[in-house]
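Worked example (supplementary).
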Amino acid sequence: MLRSEQVTIDCLQYCNWSPAIFDQMAQGGVDAVHVTICYHEDFGETVQNLETWNRRFQDYSDRIVPGRVAEDVLTARAAGKTAIFFGFQNCSPIEDDVDRVEICHQLGVRFMQLSYNNQSLLATGCYEKEDPGITRMGRQVIREMNRVGLVIDMSHSAERSTLEAIEYSTRPIAITHANPASWHPALRNKSDEVLKALAASGGMVGFSLYPHHLKNLSDCTLPDFCAMVADTAEKMGIDHIGIGSDLCQDQPDSVVAWMRNGRWTRDTDYGEGSSSIPGFPDPPAWFRDNRDFPALGQELLTVGFSKVEVRQIMGGNWLEFFRRSFTREN
Amino acid sequence: MLRSEQVTIDCLQYCNWSPAIFDQMAQGGVDAVHVTICYHEDFGETVQNLETWNRRFQDYSDRIVPGRVAEDVLTARAAGKTAIFFGFQNCSPIEDDVDRVEICHQLGVRFMQLSYNNQSLLATGCYEKEDPGITRMGRQVIREMNRVGLVIDMSHSAERSTLEAIEYSTRPIAITHANPASWHPALRNKSDEVLKALAASGGMVGFSLYPHHLKNLSDCTLPDFCAMVADTAEKMGIDHIGIGSDLCQDQPDSVVAWMRNGRWTRDTDYGEGSSSIPGFPDPPAWFRDNRDFPALGQELLTVGFSKVEVRQIMGGNWLEFFRRSFTREN
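After joint prediction of all chains, the assembly is encoded as:
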């Protein structure tokens, strides 16, 4: 029964939020979105970002509601609204304080990456040359995240750190937005070893629609993308896959510069881009905003998934994962 | 001429500062001390610690003066006072901001460790199981420290990170407080490979008198200690050794708990101690406070160093290093 619930969940967006985008979520039938609250912000800056969201929930209460537990997705859907779940793309908000994990959960945060592109206090990012795995503090933080129900997200982390996070975490973890490296060999995409370990532990991957993660980048076709989904379903099992689009709609290029450079470098880091293509890449023609989700679900049927399987991929699996993940253990 | 300058410099203390201790510095003829300003403090907390020192410079102006350039040591000595040079035992005050390096130098800081016992954003600490070397941000920060004249200190860092810091830094670095691991195999002590690379690059080691770094711990004898100094002089050359006592006089055990645990763990980390010996160890009977420096110099003569060599070890080498290190490159 649960698996046939018809919900659409996108497990990663970082748009330049506006009423127009909230309207598009409704038009696309998107019931829940995991939104990014920080990239490099410290705790104080992150709280300011949360305050901005609290105002949005007041100002656009006809469109969006705070998402804290899985059932908020169904409540939002019934009301024709979208539930917004908060996540960090880095561990910078907890600074060096393990007790800040619980504070962040109390403030509504449900996902935290243990590292962004660089080495963090907890784990290694995918752009470092060396990956020593989970640090001493990292082990403490994983245990605390497990306790309070804050999901470990390793989307931007390096291989060994990711495998160790899967191993050390007593609860399933997520890679909210990435694709298989075997399909498109970007540093941000994941090895088959990681994807299989993730599935074996009950974890989830969200397929990314960010062009740098796609075969042929912005020219990737919808059938190619859906064929990759089918291929990954074979590897991981149908229960462990979903969508995490990494949609960065309406953002100026200064935002991607902040993501890549933060305050940590005096050189310019181009990340997945280059000095000739320093900004956000163009999205694929078939995925420009939240209104494009229904066509994606339709194409998944075309490549051979059943209706039940498409429901799982488009949101049912994330809903199940939310049910298992956001509760406190003690 | 320079080498025969008679100065006494201790390149690491973290005492519970009081007028009594400042008096003892004068009685021991200590002309300059590198004092620790932070272990885990963030930038704001570190600024508060600097404010406390600024008040001390006013309140005890008859005893202590701020140390910013090497010549401040000689000025202090001529006035019968002690020059206080600031250092960080961790990179926590610069947070994730490479531009904070220059700010800290402007505030008077002259030494910064790239990591304490744990992995940092820049390098690895000696208690981590894995050491991936200098991180992406670490390379940026080393370059910036070189530019502004903030000395890289690797006292608590792990082997590979230390070797890479020596390699990547264009200016000589310091290990302000540690002993050879070949003499006493503590995690905090340094391999012959590190000590030789340090010397070859023009760097300095300061010998520690902290019991956990000494053979036979608190029972270490003064002749044993001085024999180790002589042995290390053979390995590194007489120009690259000095004193960094790690004196933690009058500190309550809560302070060593802060050093080890900061805010990063919910378990108790005992560092070099254990659950049965959780606090500060007793100092050796022959090194209890700043008044014990003259006897240490005397014993170095006894083990066979010349008068000039003893002057180098007791402060002359650090003075030379200060001259080369604290100036801006541009």
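Two points are worth noting when inspecting this output. Residues 2-325 of chain A form a domain with the TIM Barrel fold (CATH 3.20.20.140). The first helix of chain A runs from residue 19 to 27.
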